[in-house]
Recover the amino acids of this structure.
């Protein structure tokens, strides 16, 4: 196990009707003049925004609204948000939505006290200050409600890049699984895929002697395997929604990933797809992550066999562990197919002829990237090609 | 799943040589004049205290020392600590030790700004203020390094009682598994038993639809089952020590227990043993918890069968699930025996004739207590009796 630091100071408020406590928690965490940042009309139509505003008013907290966050959130709205916050002297940002809204809020939070271009933080610069951010989560997926990460897409050039800092970890996150019950099956499945991918990115590691985090990773995956088909079959199943929602947070605070090298190539490879095609991140991961597995599993057959046995319930083939490893990848694809996810470039709406451009955008040149297996541009090209026509399907 | 709030703001600094960062972290968390609270001579003899003092001096942080904390920490030293902190204008308490030292530090932290008797907080009163507490952990066991709990023994009357508040959650906890490598096998096994007990207290619940926390509980237990025999066989196995140390924290921040009713009768029943005989808490739990399981398992045979199958790797007996449930309890006892724990009153040095006094001290009168199964005084008497001569052994 490697040395590590783990810090997750977010206060999680979980359960039915908890959004009515938004005002109380903003007050507790020192907010007096709030930017409510949200996405499309569903937060308005469902009455959620009204309930939150009412709860802020009850605590005499003033607020300004900024909607319009799109999936794969854009830099353009971030600039608008930064300007608005400065004009209105905002001292607290409340994200009402899923990962896109939260990530956009985090970008604004870093940008407001910064004199330069906020995009600097998405090119490796570390922020020194940020406005406090909190969330009312409406989609179980990104884990952004409990992480110090944010991913933003630069509209001009379709660049999708990430930033990270403890300063943008949410002060509190209100998580009411009821709010996710209206989410259509496709988006629900995209979220579930994202959650599972967050775990797998940590699971496949070269660090040995990490039983506790291996087992915690498996705990989240086993939960997702049980609960996801239940919400696809019955979107209003509160308990299954609740299990998935908390699993999504546990998957990404990093408590399941501390003390070990992590991979994260699948996320990087996928980001180019959602940047170019504006597809859902989870759908892109459903296509890319098993293709990545197919490409790298020989690097550590027994680790893939472990996943097959412990996560997918495969029987270990002691005469030929590679068969078990391959069976695990097939199980993952079967599961993704059953919950309605695409498995190939074609199903995603991606085009084989764009592969050179995707690799070019990935932009690693002659270098290599990743934790579990270091990949070259050629390797990444091959993974995209596997995603065109997978073998282990 | 039940509604819940989860808040674990402790900054964990984990790994080799991390105690040398104590000064840096005290400074980061605002301490300027520190009480170093510790136990016996091992922290002195090993040079640990010197390294910590050096690291404080490097940051120009002044300090006062108070050693002498015993296992089952006493109120008498807490009073002394409170007096000392007031005299010296201490603004930060650094606990260097295991659960007893940390719990004593938490008691002092609540007592210093309080005009009344600190014992009030161990009789149900909630504190409004507390000095900040942090830890350098030397024993993997109590989980106090990441919890808002503290247990203190009143010397006059052998009363052992608990207090809880987010105010006493450590600001940071430095966790170097190397520091636990000198711990003798018996104390190591006591710690492991305590960790597993913290999980089982949460695992046996009447709350349904809690797959995520069930699986997280099982993750910690599976890790303990793998790693504990390795450190008993080779106390200097760093990686096994590291897995156990992080498992101990995960077991008790409550991340594995949120959203579900918990039991905690075994801890209460054990506390009377360690209060009366001054035995190790973990050893007492090894005697009491399986006895409690033997007494209550019929309340939910399938939950005990789930533990047997998922945690102990038993084959499910679909014709007679009760056999599986009983087999799981036997596995637990076998495991405890293998790591050198006592299983009976006699092995612990407890006496059957003290049972009426133990029940009397437990002090529930005509009431009932506990989460999974509500127990009367008569039930508790019966559990002590099972611990005299267990059946499932």
């Amino acid at each position: 196990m490697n040395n590590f630091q783990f810090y997750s100071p977010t206060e999680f408020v979980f359960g039915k009707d908890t959004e009515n406590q938004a005002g109380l928690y903003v007050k507790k965490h020192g907010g007096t003049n709030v930017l409510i940042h949200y996405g499309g009309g569903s937060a308005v139509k469902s009455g959620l925004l009204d309930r939150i505003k009412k709860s802020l008013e009850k605590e005499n907290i003033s607020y300004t609204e900024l909607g319009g966050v799109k999936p794969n959130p854009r830099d353009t709205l971030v600039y608008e948000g930064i300007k608005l916050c400065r004009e209105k002297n905002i001292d607290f940002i409340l994200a009402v939505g899923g990962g896109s809204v939260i990530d956009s809020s985090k970008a604004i939070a870093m940008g407001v006290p910064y004199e330069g271009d906020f995009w600097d933080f998405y090119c490796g610069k570390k922020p020194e200050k940020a406005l406090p951010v909190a969330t009312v989560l409406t989609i179980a997926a990104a884990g952004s409600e409990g992480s110090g990460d944010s991913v933003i897409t630069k509209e001009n050039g379709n660049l999708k890049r990430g930033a990270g800092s403890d300063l943008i970890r949410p002060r509190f996150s209100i998580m009411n699984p009821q709010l996710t019950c209206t989410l259509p099956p496709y988006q629900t499945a995209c979220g579930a895929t994202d959650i599972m991918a967050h775990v797998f990115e940590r699971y496949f590691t070269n660090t040995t002697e990490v039983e506790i985090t291996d087992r915690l990773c498996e705990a989240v995956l086993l939960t997702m395997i049980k609960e996801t088909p239940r919400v696809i079959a019955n979107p209003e199943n509160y308990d299954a929604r609740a299990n998935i929602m908390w699993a999504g947070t546990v998957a990404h605070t990093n408590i399941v990933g501390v003390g070990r090298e992590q991979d994260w190539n699948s996320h990087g490879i996928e980001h180019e797809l959602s940047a170019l095609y504006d597809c859902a991140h989870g759908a892109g991961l459903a296509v890319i992550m098993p293709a990545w597995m197919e490409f790298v599993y020989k690097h550590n057959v027994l680790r893939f066999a472990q996943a097959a046995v412990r996560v997918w319930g495969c029987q270990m083939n002691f005469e030929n562990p590679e068969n078990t490893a391959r069976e695990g990848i097939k199980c993952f694809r079967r599961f993704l197919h059953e919950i309605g996810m695409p498995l190939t470039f074609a199903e995603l709406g991606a085009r084989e002829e764009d592969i050179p451009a995707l690799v070019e955008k990935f932009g690693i040149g002659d270098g290599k990237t990743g934790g579990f297996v270091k990949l070259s541009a050629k390797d990444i090209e091959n993974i995209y090609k596997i995603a065109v026509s997978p073998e282990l399907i």
In short: Residues 185-388 of chain B form a domain with the Dehydroquinate synthase-like, alpha domain fold (CATH 1.20.1090.10). Chain B has a mean pLDDT of 97.
